[in-house]
Amino acid sequence: MDYRPIDPALNKISGMIVDAAYQVHSSLGAGLLESVYQKCMLVELGERKLHVQRELALPIKYKGHDVDANLRLDMLVENQIVVELKAVEELLPVHEAQLMTYLKLSGKRIGLLINFNVPVIKKGIKRIIL
Questions:
Q1: Coil, strand or helix: which one is 6?
Q2: Distance, CA of 126 to CA of 18 (rounded, Å)
Q3: pLDDT digits (tens, 9 = 90+) for 62-115
Q4: Which of 17, 38, 46, 118 has the most CB atoms around its CB within 10 Å?
């Protein structure tokens, strides 16, 4: 576990991502596919002038070997924050574990798990810091 404080600039970016999710959810509501929310998030984050990489391949090294496990990050914002999007009935511990694993494998410290299939988006956002 890394106990260094989070850079205030990253906290600001994290807040911008959450605000973008609020905008998307307030415009579209729940009930759509994850891919729709992802495309709308890209528009919102672009309007905020944030650099976003989407469907970024996440390589795995195992015992010195490159393993092609076809893992992909939904979004990597400003090369620092991993964003995992969902459109599921409820977030489960496996979704948090997935994001934590992505953070560990990518070497990033901050991740946002955002589920758009909720009546109020606040209940669908989980921030994870390693």
A1: coil
A2: 10
A3: 999 988 888 999 999 999 999 999 999 999 999 999 999 999 999 999 999 999
A4: 17
**Does position 1 have pLDDT exceeding 70, yes or no?**
no
Query: What span, in angstroms and rounded, lies between the C-alpha atoms of 98 and 27?
Result: 28
Do residues 95 and 89 lie in contact, with contact meaning Cβ atoms separated by under 8 Å? no
7, pLDDT greater than 90:
no
Q: Evaluate whether residue 33 is within a structural domain.
A: yes
Q: Residue 48 in contact with residue 24, Cβ under 8 Å?
A: no
**Domain of 48, in residue numbers:** 8-129
1 located within any domain: no
Tally of domains in the chain: 1
Classify residue 2: in a domain, yes or no. Answer: no
